[in-house]
Amino acid sequence: MNTVAEALDIKITKTAESRLAQTDFSNLPFGKQFSDHMFIADYENGEWKNFKILPYGEIPLSPAISALHYGQAFFEGLKAYKHPDGKIGIFRPYKNAERANKSAERLSMPELPEEIFVQSIAALVSLDRDWIPTQDNHSLYIRPFMFATDAALGVQPSSTYKFVVLTGPTGPYFSKNLKVKIENSFSRASEGGFGFAKAAGNYAGSLLPAREAVKEGYDQLIWTDAKEHAYVEELGAANIMFIIDGKLITPSTRDTILKGVTRDAVLTLANSWGIPVEERRISVAEVIEGIESGKLTEAFGVGTAATIAHIAEIGLDDKLYTLSDPAGREFSNRVFKALNDIRYGLVPDEFGWNYIV
Ligand SMILES: *Cc1c(COP(=O)(O)O)cnc(C)c1O
């Protein structure tokens, strides 16, 4: 850790008293527990500086910061896992670094060098390594984010920013198989917009539609294209995949779809197993026909927080379709295990996905 911290010249202030002993590791709902420390960097005069790790806590900010008024803010999400040999593996952090810069570019925010992104996370995770839970399907969730800090109310790109990293121990995001609704009036993203960015504003706009779906008895919704609501795009804040006729089919990425790291890993594993993969547009009609004919045998969401989330039921208008029993699904259960085996360091990391700390 020292070498990493030295490379970036990170000033480390350790907490006077760890909160670890008071934290109930048998109850870790997603995103509610934070580790002892956080990382902060400032962007000023065209460069990133003031790299610090300090105790997790409040940061003083002006109420005029432009992130609060005009939404110049994005985030990332990735995880660290404890391996049997005591080492820590962070799953594909350079992929998140690359995507962070795509989000930054679209939102007129500054580029963050990939090494700052990865090394800040590595230093933080190393310091708070005792916070990584070891029970099944648990990990340390890592939340890097950037936001605009100019205290000025004109609508224009900020000239100052903060990049912050928080971490926290977490269990699975979804604890059950999902009942989902195909959304055909609200939209998450449109052509020319910024659905491909992990922009904070994308999630604000999804809350009302998701709440409506919950009121109707669903767990989540399947987003469709904004123009016709005829093509499937994503599952809540996860990518969506289907097995139809023995082929793995997922919407091709475009500016309305977030390019998931988990999506990429699942497609890579499927390819390596010789399973036919199709990245293309997939219509709602094709999904419904597939369920009715029995050709659609699996439907699931893939994401860092969601891991692999089986879809058990799909609602469209007034109809509810029941899919095959998730317990018996061949591909999604196989890929869930294969991904976990790599992340938890139980098998050789043949794709070089684990960044070892
Ligand atoms: C984060 C996210 C995903 C999943 O991406 P991962 O890199 O696999 O975590 C998919 N869709 C949306 C909208 C997301 O926000």
What is the CATH top level name of the largest domain?
Alpha Beta
Q: Mind summarizing the main beta sheet?
A: 9 strands, mixed
Helix content: 25-40%
**Structure summary, number of beta strands:** 18
Radius of gyration: 21 Å
Distance between the termini: 8 Å
Helix/strand structural class: alpha+beta
Helix-strand topology string:
HEEEHEEEHHEEEHEEEEHEHEEEHE
CATH superfamily of the largest domain: Aminotransferase class 4, branched-chain amino acid transferase, N-terminal domain
CATH architecture of the largest domain: 2-Layer Sandwich
Describe it:
This protein has 357 residues and is an alpha+beta fold. It contains eight helices and 18 strands. Strands 1, 2, 3, 4, 5, 6, 7, 8 and 18 form a nine-stranded mixed sheet that branches. The radius of gyration is 21 Å and the shape is globular. Pyridoxal-5'-phosphate binds next to strand 12 and helix 6.
Helices, strands, pairings?
Blueprint: H1 2-8, E1 11-12, E2 37-44, E3 47-55, H2 66-70, E4 73-75, E5 78-82, E6 88-91, H3 93-106, H4 114-127, E7 139-148, E8 161-170, E9 178-182, H5 200-215, E10 220-224, E11 232-235, E12 238-244, E13 247-250, H6 261-272, E14 277-279, H7 284-293, E15 296-303, E16 307-316, E17 319-322, H8 330-343, E18 354-356
Parallel strand pairs: 1-3, 9-10, 9-16, 13-14
Antiparallel strand pairs: 2-3, 2-8, 4-7, 5-6, 5-7, 6-18, 7-8, 10-11, 11-12, 12-13, 12-15, 15-16, 16-17
Helix pairs in contact: 1-4, 3-4
The structure holds pyridoxal-5'-phosphate.
Pyridoxal-5'-phosphate is lined by residues 77, 198, 234, 237-239, 258, 260-263, 303-304.
